């Protein structure tokens, strides 16, 4: 019996050591110091340790939609109560001990207390900890606070409605220990977005805390706390920089039909075609190489096709006029000016609005 328990203890500690090696990258001091202090208790407790997790994002250092990630400066707060960490305040001479998190982890491991080890699930870079501290109260109540900066993955980005899209951002904190040992509880009062995020391109709001159960690094069910918030773009920028120039180009193309000289029409339409190509490259440079068309892509591609069709149409009209059928050329020209061109563009824009923005 003793040999069986000793074997379980060695296997459990070895598994946790491997988890620490694979989930603590980067130079020493850059990551969560609590990740070095794993629990030595093997038996599943009667009740899991209740740990409150708060996530407060103070700054957004940048949103890279092409790489689909964002940088943040965040304050992570953890609270739990473990009687095994209690002490005599008269003996210590104080009610609260402010200690280094690593020393707390080492002490907890030495007495077999559970430490709520965590990892940030969508972390892409080293987590550079600016400050971290743990406060232990005499009754065993512990408060751990750290301020750090890191880059996080944003895999939920979907640019189908670009630039009218609303994107979802996540900050996911996962428990390394299974749910039988540690249970996370969101601290809503200590979570959310700061008042001055320093992000001008996006309007960030609708922040909320969610709790989930996932398959953790131990291969068993673990708790996850997720700070979710949404981002919308400043539409004034896109109206002025994108849609207003597009409207001017469409209007110029339509005004060409009022020229009697078909050769001049062809030359100006060719110049507009090059403008559309440059315009398309400028917009696509801000987005990843997507496997689908966005709202603005759909409109731009049709503008490109229509401009190309205008050049072909004017070439045909010139051939008809040169062949001595000037009346037929003017009749077709007049028909396109009044009906096909304006109604065609209205249909294109209307379909794009319905298919990309209104349809579920």
Automatic annotation (TrEMBL):
Domain Neurotransmitter-gated ion-channel ligand-binding per the UniProt entry, residue ranges: 43-176
> Span of the secretion signal?
1-30
Tell me what topology the record assigns in the membrane: Multi-pass membrane protein
Lineage in the entry? Bacteria, Pseudomonadati, Pseudomonadota, Alphaproteobacteria, Rhodobacterales
Which cellular component terms (GO) are annotated to the entry? membrane
Q: Write down what this protein is called.
A: Neurotransmitter-gated ion-channel ligand-binding domain-containing protein
Keywords, A to Z? Answer: Membrane, Signal, Transmembrane, Transmembrane helix
Q: Which GO terms describe its molecular function?
A: extracellular ligand-gated monoatomic ion channel activity; transmembrane signaling receptor activity
Query: What sections of the protein cross the membrane?
Result: 238-259, 266-283, 295-317, 338-359
Q: Where in the cell is it found?
A: Membrane
Q: Which organism is it from?
A: Ruegeria marisrubri
